[in-house]
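User: quick one, sequence for these tokens?
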């Protein structure tokens, strides 16, 4: 058991954290007192109780001793009443994002395979990767104080909003968490004047967001103004942080570009604790890096996005196409992908869930009639029905007056499902449009996908692809004159995402084996798209050559901007710019 200094917040609470901290990295003695490694709770460099007490006052008392979300369902902390609440919320996204120690995917709450998962009273409970403290920030000043405190005491800092995070970037072991969910202001403005712009510069219709805003609330707020904004498909995804910093895509992206193409201005806190405005006229290099370079440069405390006139209407096409015959299904799927080049020209976007035996389609066509939408999608459905062993069900085209009306009708998650409270890992690849413009390209893609799907189902029987039809159109052209998002987005048409899951009781060694299999399997898509890339917010955390895959030719410049604004890597995160200088746990530097 590791000793832990007690905080005046609650001696009992911190004793419990000490009991949970069963393992920690071993550091060479020469590193413990220097700046080469982050300070850990059991080390003399960790702040004293008096220091923590003083810090708590500077953040208006918003300092929380943080525990694993399921702690009270495990011995020796078991509490039946509290465990009942945990059991009711464990797989609920809303409960998870309202709980300081919880993330959407539970595997990121673990550290080296140890955590506190599920509600089985007899299983072990460790602190894992759950931060030791959380600051629930309610103001810019709270953010500044937390950044300065973490920097001064050399403590690992994790930044979190909702916990929708497929690379585990919003948590860290032995860290302090900066939780911005309460800073969720939303303001729709007819004319936003970019700070520092020349006199006479015209205002822009925009929406101003706090870092805790989520897309469901944003869409609701903007709808009465007859405007739309490029955002995600999932209502509880944060609208400001990792989503847009990494690029940000959604159903309206082919019409209006990526989220980064629509950013007008950021207000951020940099590693020195100072407030900075980043736009086309101030801190332009930082503004460029924040539009696609991922988290790891600063804490965004306000984002301003361009808005667009409301759609005249939007069509929503659904269909489930299935067959037990693999050869037949492969032909149907090949035909499906062959139509995407022309569908892109017509303005379609959307999502497909694909398994070896079925595809479930949810596609959108704005500003067109129902008859036009049906005429466009029907030839594919007719082709599928030409096979006697293919079943087509739920094939409908519905018509909605606004984007928000469609968003409400579909529910709050893709395919009406949520994926909270499970252990999951993704792998992904952007597929260039040129691959859809020749029979050879379609054949190569289709045959590769068959192999990848077969391999993924051997890892996890329910595995499949989420195919995101969110590129092409304006994404290819770009609305912003200069962003740092990987150039692969500008050449792509579809984003393929493969996923695996595992049970809480799966041994850590077996998890690692399956994760390596996932990386190798997605490698088949990397092989047929040389020089391409992927969307790093929905990617494999073990992505090989990640600098190239995530950032492409922008990486050298991104590294230069990072070193200018965060030379000590206070904001270091997994597979973020500059993280190659740190060990796998991001607790010790390996290079200078």
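Assistant:
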């Amino acid at each position: 058991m590791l000793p832990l200094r007690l905080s005046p917040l609650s001696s009992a609470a911190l004793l419990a954290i000490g009991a949970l901290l069963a393992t920690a990295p071993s550091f060479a003695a020469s590193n413990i007192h220097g700046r080469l490694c982050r300070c850990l709770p059991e080390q003399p460099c960790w702040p004293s109780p008096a220091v923590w007490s003083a810090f708590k006052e500077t953040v208006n008392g918003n300092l929380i001793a943080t525990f694993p979300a399921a702690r009270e369902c495990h011995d020796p902390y078991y509490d039946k009443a509290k465990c009942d609440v945990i059991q009711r919320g464990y797989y609920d996204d809303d409960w998870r994002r309202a709980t300081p120690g919880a993330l959407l995917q539970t595997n990121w709450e673990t550290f080296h395979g140890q955590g506190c998962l599920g509600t089985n009273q007899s299983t072990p409970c460790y602190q894992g990767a759950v931060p030791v403290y959380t600051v629930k920030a309610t103001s810019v000043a709270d953010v500044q104080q937390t950044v300065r405190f973490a920097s001064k005491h050399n403590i690992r800092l994790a930044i979190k909003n909702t916990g929708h995070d497929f690379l585990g970037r919003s948590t860290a072991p032995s860290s302090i968490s900066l939780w911005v969910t309460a800073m969720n202001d939303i303001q729709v403005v007819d004319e936003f004047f970019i700070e520092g712009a020349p006199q006479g510069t015209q205002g822009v219709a925009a929406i101003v967001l706090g870092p805790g805003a989520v897309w469901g609330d944003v869409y609701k707020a903007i709808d009465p103004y007859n405007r739309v904004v490029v955002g995600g498909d999932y209502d509880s995804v944060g609208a400001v942080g990792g989503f847009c910093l990494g690029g940000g895509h959604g159903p309206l992206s082919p019409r209006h570009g990526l989220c980064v193409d629509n950013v007008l201005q950021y207000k951020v806190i940099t590693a020195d604790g100072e407030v900075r405005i980043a736009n086309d006229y101030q801190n332009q290099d930082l503004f460029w890096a924040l539009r696609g370079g991922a988290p790891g440069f600063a804490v965004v405390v306000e984002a301003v996005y361009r808005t667009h006139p409301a759609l005249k209407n939007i069509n929503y096409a659904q269909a489930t196409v299935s067959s037990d015959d693999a050869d037949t299904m492969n032909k149907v799927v090949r035909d499906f992908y062959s139509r995407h080049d022309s569908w892109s020209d017509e303005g379609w976007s959307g999502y497909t869930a694909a398994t070896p035996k079925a595809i479930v389609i949810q596609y959108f066509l704005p500003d067109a009639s129902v008859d036009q939408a049906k005429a466009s999608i029907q030839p594919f459905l007719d082709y599928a029905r030409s096979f006697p062993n293919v079943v087509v069900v739920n094939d409908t085209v519905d018509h909605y007056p606004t984007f928000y009306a469609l968003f409400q009708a579909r529910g709050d998650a893709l395919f009406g499902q949520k994926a909270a409270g499970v252990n999951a890992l993704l792998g992904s690849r952007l597929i260039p449009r040129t691959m859809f413009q020749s029979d050879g390209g379609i054949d190569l893609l289709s045959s590769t996908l068959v192999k990848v799907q077969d391999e993924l189902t051997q890892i996890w029987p329910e595995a499949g692809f989420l195919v995101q039809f969110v590129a092409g159109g304006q994404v290819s052209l770009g609305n912003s004159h200069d962003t740092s998002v990987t150039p692969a987005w500008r050449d792509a048409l579809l984003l393929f995402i493969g996923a695996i899951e595992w049970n809480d009781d799966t041994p850590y060694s077996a998890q690692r084996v399956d994760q390596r299999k996932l990386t190798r399997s997605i490698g088949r898509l990397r092989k047929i798209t040389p020089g391409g890339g992927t969307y790093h917010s929905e990617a494999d955390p073990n992505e090989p050559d990640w600098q190239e895959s995530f950032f492409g030719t922008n990486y050298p410049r991104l590294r230069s901007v990072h070193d200018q604004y965060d030379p000590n890597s206070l904001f270091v995160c997994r597979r973020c710019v500059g993280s190659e200088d740190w060990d796998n746990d991001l607790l010790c530097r390996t290079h200078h």
